[in-house]
Amino acid sequence: MLSIQKYAAIDIGSNAVRLLISNIIEEEGKPVMFKKNSLVRVPIRLGSDVFISKTISAENTQRILDTMLAFRLLMKSHKVVKYKACATSAMREALNGRDVVKMVLKNSKIQIDIIDGEEEAAIIAATDLHKYIDDSKTYLYVDVGGGSTEFTVIHEGTAVASKSFKIGTVRLLNDMVRKEAWIELEMWIKEKAGHFDKIEVIGSGGNINKIFKVSGKAMGKPLTYFYLTSYYNTLQSYSYEERITVLDLNQDRADVIIPAMRIYLSAMKWSGAKHIYVPKIGLADGIIKSIYYDTVSSNTQ
Question: Distance between CA atoms of 86 and 84, rounded to whole angstroms?
């Protein structure tokens, strides 16, 4: 017997807000399938407010509400049966973050959970990577966001270390990452990943997805450290305006892509990885799976 339901994940990040709608396909005797149905991205960039003023501005508060009202209608049109909304770095650091959450709930009926960095890393790490990785190998999973980056070391199919660092693209753009944070990250990567003979990096986030698309590589094939370094230098040789007009990058991507590459390249350098795989998964995918497995767990109790 075949069952298809739609679940939705809302990821309220420091750079953009996303709605992912997925089909959950269950057939007796077969493993459950998660199939992406629709993805909507709105570049609100909450981090530009919060990392400077510690509050979400009135303008962006209204934009968040408008976006949540739109997402509510889209979920209704798609006949979504379950959803979960998670807010990350910017919302958890905003002094008025909880007030915004209450206002959104009152006006849109969408409940937003503000999750901490460790929970964010755990949700991402719980994403079903086994379709994309070789369980006999070791990987450093790097999920770059606007306000923070989550790192997970995966050895023989198991997450053995995971940590969130306040190093993100919007934070770097606003020159709000201290040198000490980079030193702490370097030490953590070398301690947790440096003793493995061979390690590869898995990258997730909109920026590395865009870089992978530009590379023209086939899905499943990695990018090399050399390619990433070369593209990083190319991007830096263009002005912000030229990255939009000549390189055809969206305006909300053309600035954050450079600090994102700095994070990925640093992770590769400090771990000794020569390749980075880009499976196009992230927090929203992890949220979808957490909804499903929480549902299965409650049904079997």
Answer: 7
> Distance of CA 26 to CAs 4, 7, 32, 58, 292, Å?
6, 13, 5, 43, 11
Q: Which of 143, 137, 180, 146 is nearest to 164 (CA)?
A: 143
pLDDT tens-digit map of 55-78 = 999 999 999 999 999 999 999 999
3-state helix, strand, coil in the chain (%, to 5): 45, 25, 30
Query: Which 8-state DSSP code applies to residue 23?
Result: E
Torsion angle, alpha carbons of 243, 247, 253, 259, to 10: -70
Tell me which residue of 295, 296, 99, 264 sits closest to 169, measured CA to CA: 264
DSSP per residue, 239-299: -HHHHHHTS---TTTTTTHHHHHHHHHHHHHHHT--EEE-----HHHHHHHHHHHHHHHHH
Alpha carbon distance 202, 141 (integer Å): 5
Please report which helix (H) or strand (E) contains residue 192, including its range. helix 179-193
Please check the confidence at residue 194 and state whether its pLDDT lies above 90: no
Token code pair at residue 70: 């739109």
**Contact between 225 and 274 (Cβ < 8 Å):** yes
Using alpha carbons only, what angle is made at residue 166 by residues 88 and 147, rounded to the nearest 5 degrees?
45
The pTM of this model reads: 0.90
The one-letter amino acid code at 207 reads N
Q: Are 257 and 242 in contact (CB under 8 A)?
A: no
Distance CA 65, CA 46 (A): 13
Q: From CA 12, how far away is CA 93, in angstroms rounded?
A: 13
